[in-house]
What we know:
This protein has 6 helices and no strands. With 115 residues, it is mostly helical.
Amino acid sequence: MTEKTKAVEAQEEQAVAEEAKAELGIKETEEAVEGVFVLALFLAKRLKDGAGVDDAVALFSKISSDEEFKAVVGQAYEGIDKVPAEIKDIDFTEGVVLAKKAIDFVPRMVEALKK
């Protein structure tokens, strides 16, 4: 392999790496945030009187019977390994999107804790 060929290959590899980085976005991070908050809402409702075996059973039951809950928590878990890279690459607009997603859960969490 010539030096020119090596240089071209290195440039191509760098271009692919930069393209992959540019496409990171925050999809997995958004799903993780949503999954954490959905799980936190459930746990806030269940654990107000303390933790018990019945709470673990209720969580298992919720995951088994509630397809929407299962999907949200499952999506959060599936892409969790990509979250650190997405966070390292986050820009201001993406940060605002994530902050809004978190803020949107506050009223629901407050309501859950009031009951």
